[in-house]
Design goal:
The chain has a 6-stranded antiparallel beta sheet. Strand 4 and strand 5 form a beta hairpin. The longest helix is centred in the C-terminal third of the chain and has 13 residues. The protein has one domain. It is globular and about 35 Å long. With 109 residues, it is α+β, with helices and mostly antiparallel strands. The protein has 2 helices and 6 strands; from the N terminus they run E-H-E-E-E-E-E-H.
């Protein structure tokens, strides 16, 4: 059974989670530059394993998945997915479909 949980978290906690947990396969990178986003932790089960992702609510009210990578010089670089979700319900539908295997795990344009 799959479950999704939403929890508002602060930027420092988000950075810790980004370093600790794997990202979902729907992520496609673009430069992430917001200075103080509203970030949510999203947890879901897939294939009997719990996965964790982070989601930002933009000022426009849409949601984007985010991740963090280290640049070659060791600085943290935040990445924001290209695809937006109009609301939490749409995001939850996508996650449920990922859990059921309905979507390809590595979508390409």
């Amino acid at each position: 059974m799959s479950a999704t949980f939403y929890l508002p978290i602060d930027r420092l906690r988000a950075e810790v989670l980004l370093q600790k947990f794997p990202q979902s396969p729907i992520l496609r990178p673009c430069l992430y530059t917001k200075t103080n986003p509203e970030i949510f932790a999203v947890s879901y089960s897939k294939g009997g394993k719990i996965s964790h992702s982070l989601v930002e609510r933009s000022q426009e009210g849409t949601f984007y998945e985010i991740s963090m990578r280290l640049s070659p010089d060791g600085n943290k670089v935040f990445l924001r997915s290209v695809h937006s979700f109009k609301d939490m319900a749409e995001l939850e539908t996508v996650i449920k479909n990922l859990c059921s295997g309905e979507f390809d795990e590595d979508p390409r344009d």
